[in-house]
Amino acid sequence: MPNNETNLQAVTLPHAWSVRSWRTRPAEQMPRYADPVELEGALAELGRLPPLVTSWEIQSLKQQLAEAQDGKRFLLQGGDCAESFDECSSDVISNRLKVLLQMSLVLVHGMRKPVVRVGRFAGQYAKPRSADMEIIDGVSLPSYRGDIVNGPAFTPEARRPDPRRMIKAHARSAMTMNFVRALIDGGFADLHHPEYWDLGWVGHSPLADEYRHMVAAIGDAVRFMETLSGAEVHNLNRVDFYTSHEALLLPYEESMTRQVPRNWGWFDLSTHFPWIGMRTAQINGGHVEFLRGIRNPVAVKVGPSVTPDQLLRLVDVLNPEDEPGRLTFIHRMGAAHIGAKLPALLDAMRRDGRRVLWVCDPMHGNTEPTANGYKTRRFANIAGEVEQAFDLHAAAGTRLGGVHLELTGEDVTECLGGARELTELDLERAYRTCVDPRLNYEQALEIAMLIVRKQNQ
Ligand code: PEP
Ligand code: MN
């Protein structure tokens, strides 16, 4: 019976998942810790520390993402490329929250649908790098992999991967979470008072008038509804805010992954919404294996080299039950490539009846060096990729359900162009990122306005 034999061999039963099963797979981008005892000690300590989020918050985010998948909501995901331990400060955190709240206000007002707000913060401390080592003047040291792994200074001490940094990252994430939760519970995100979210330097912005106009219109609408109903409109004084980060450093994620009494299964309680980056999305790799077994909603970055077949296999592994809200694909192609690369992926998914939430990251495919030595992104390319994404989804019969952005509430000059037409010379004034260039407040608001215009076309 040669046929049966062949069939038997072809069937590979899915192997059992455990919080440690990723360790049996090749995992890219892992630091090499010198002392296994020190590493296990840090992980054991982390495993005893309380989690940063809860399983019921994670479930409610999954529900909101399911609604975004159905076109009833729009996802706004944004924050720093990398948080740093030094910038875990009140101003940086509240300014970032202000920008995200203002953008979401523009989106809610313009799109007439609720927004799912997800920060790239409270744990965005691990970075993938293109090379393991960095060589300067003949000296070779391990690359900087984010504050959770090592330090940015080019010295052997700073660059040594230090497991104790995971404990510090957990603490800084908890402080960030705590402050965000306190601000929101205290009424910071109250729709009755959008003026709380104004950033000092915004007054002179070319966009200020349009924004103020919108705020006034929303204030009128809120008061009108309250007059009609004779009462305060509740849930306008509180918005939901969720967190996300790249689930890159798997030993850390493993130690934060717990079984909870209230919900069945395993949850990664370091964040609500972990994603895996373009460099660690190998179907047989450790990162996909880890994400496979946790119950959080998960996302995968999809770059220009991904084939339709690879995408379908990722769905097989990460969302075999077709659970709504479970899987998000964040495409990041670059303005020059999205037109050639995205349609085949959208077609394959639609033809196969696979459902995911599609999100556009217009940042990571549009990074380029300037003549004066900065790593930058052109606003025109970022805006162009978002616009093309809307058109390509419409043409393919799929839906763009959100955006993923790198932005900051600080007055930085890292991306070129925008309403203030920043030039290469402007970059010298306030270029502060130690990893990727971010949209500043004004450029971020401009993207929100552009999304509204595009959607309503
Ligand atoms: C990032 O989001 O900072 C990142 C490194 O993205 P990607 O994996 O898409 O390159
Ligand atoms: Mn980045």
TrEMBL record:
Native source organism of the sequence: Cognatilysobacter lacus
Binding residues annotated for Mn(2+), in chain numbering: 81, 364, 406, 436
Obligatory cofactor(s): Mn(2+); Co(2+); Cd(2+)
Keywords: Cadmium, Cobalt, Manganese, Transferase
GO MF term (any one): 3-deoxy-7-phosphoheptulonate synthase activity
Pfam families linked: DAHP_synth_2 (PF01474)
Identification of the protein by name: Phospho-2-dehydro-3-deoxyheptonate aldolase
TM region positions: none
